[in-house]
Structures are given as structure tokens and as C-alpha cells.
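task queued by scheduler; priority normal; single chain, no ligands, no partner chains; default sampling; output format set to C-alpha cells
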Amino acid sequence: MQALRKLLWPFSLVYGFITFVRNKCYDWGILKSFAIPGKSICVGNLSVGGTGKTPHVAYLAEFLKDQSETSILSRGYGRKTSGFRLVNSLDSAENVGDEPLFYASIFDKNVHVAVCEKRAEGVQALQQLFPSNQLIILDDAYQHRAVKAGLNILLTEYNAPFSSDLVLPAGNLREFRSGKNRADLVIVTKCPKEISDSDKNRLANSLKVNTETLFFSEIVYAPFKAFGKECTSIKKVLLVTGIANPSPLIAEIAQKYEVEHLKFGDHHAFSKQDIEEIHQKFDTFACNETIILTTEKDFMRLKAVSASWKLDDYPWYYQPITVKIDNENKFKALINQYVNTI
């Protein structure tokens, strides 16, 4: 792996230089950014996928929706449509993307959810449709410099901080680490349940960010939810994932159950053949205390075909997750300070 990184490093320098020049063109005003009127929060990362943006966007929307009329705007990665589109819980992941469908499913009409690959157009469409809307949360728009949010939140993973990574293709970073300087708040995600002060200091020194605006979050795993046949007792889990980084989920489940993992690519569009192969795999297990478990985002892609593809005949479950932020009162106070400042 190290040898491959060395071979790819010259290409990373070229890619990083291109993104650096592009960012400077926005910083110097050569390329124009659309400054979002009113209040807006961008949640993003420097790396490609897997830092936990979706539950953090949901956390912010849940926290703020009762204070301000709130919208979530996403690109709608993986959808087969284009342009601006409002999302509701009856949509399909094929038309709107799994993450926007997840937001619409959990918030229903309490939060407006929309998709648009051109964020400036999406913002303007939302504000025309909902003139009283006071806050827009941008999902994964940290590198989308064509719009300028009022507050930028940068996420980085505990086990793969951007300080230890390289720019594509040698590493997973979308831009040089200096991109962190655009962030107002930084959250280290997927931390252990008990993270020591010395560990926090180590990460703060490694990331070289302001400790007053650095926070740490952990994943909170709720009980499994069935969307197929229910199983009264569980000993083994056939885990099916189509997400960037399933490692934390595997580690969590393995504490209680025997786990066998079927991994698909991030945002995988499951086919009927995929499901038939998963069911065939499940049928080879002798233990009747086995379930098929998937993630909540993968469930968004599967629920529309649950009956037609006979998922109802098997013990399919999904794993809901939320996040818990260390020093939450301080974090919420900083968010409120921005949102409520005139």
C-alpha cells in the first residue's frame, strides 16, 4: 500500500494543485460564490465519504427545527433524476437519493427536504417556495464553493483523521488539508464511547485546529427495526451494507452476535439478482436465530421493493443510528449563537 501511494503521489500533487487554485479563485473573488441570504449551515468533510455526515445533518435539523423553519438541501447522490426536486417520504431513493429520502422519512413535513446538484439554484428555489424559511442546512457542500454558507462544519473520522491522509488518488482527500481553514467548527466523528482528555489533545494537535471549536461525537446504535419477518431470538447476523465505511457497525454488532458481512459499494443500487443471492446465502444457514441486517440508508433503497422482491418473506432488519456530541451544551450554544444573531 505504501509503495502504491508513492507511485500515485505525483498525481495527487497535480489534483491537489488544481483544487488549490480553484479554491483561491473563489477566495480572491475571481470565481463568484452565491452568499446564501439568511442563515445557512454547511456540513461536509475533506475526504471521500464515510465520516458520518447524514446522522450529523439529522442531529442539527432535529435540534433546530422547533426554533426556525428549516430546510435540508442535498445533491441527491445516486439519483436518476436531475435538477431541483422537493422530497417527501413516499419518494424513491432512485428518484431522490437515499440520504434525502432518509431525512424526509424521519422529519416528514417538519423539515423541508430538497435535492439539487447546483446548490445555488436549490437555495433560491427553496426560498421562493418557502419565503418564511429561516435556515438551510447543506448536506455535503464543503467543496461546493459556488455557494457560501454562513457556518461551515467540517467532519473528520476518529480512525482516519484528515491529518493522516493524502489527496486523491494516493489518499482519500478531496483537497489539501489546508481546506480545514474554511471551517468554523470541526467534529471528530465515530469516537469511542469513552474518549480520554489525552486522546482529545492528541487529535487536536494532529489536526491543528482551534480547540475552542473542536468537538467529538460518537455513534449511538438504537435497537434493530424489522421490515420483514420478525425473529424472536437473534444469535447470528448476515450484515448487508452499501455504505462507504461499515467497520464501526461491524465492530458494534460483533460484540453481541456472530456476524457474516456482505459488502457492496457506497450507495449501491440493489438489484433483484442481488437480493436473490442474499436470500440464497441466508438459506444456507442452519441456525433459525439468524437475521438479515442492513443500514438505515440501505433500507431507504430497499423499502420500495420489499414486497415485490419478497423481502417480507425473510427476517430483514435495519440498524437505526443517531449521534451524541461530547460537550453538547457548548456545541449547541455556538450553533444557537450563529442562528439567533441578527
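post-processing summary
- The chain has a mean pLDDT of 94.
- The two ends are 51 Å apart (CA to CA).
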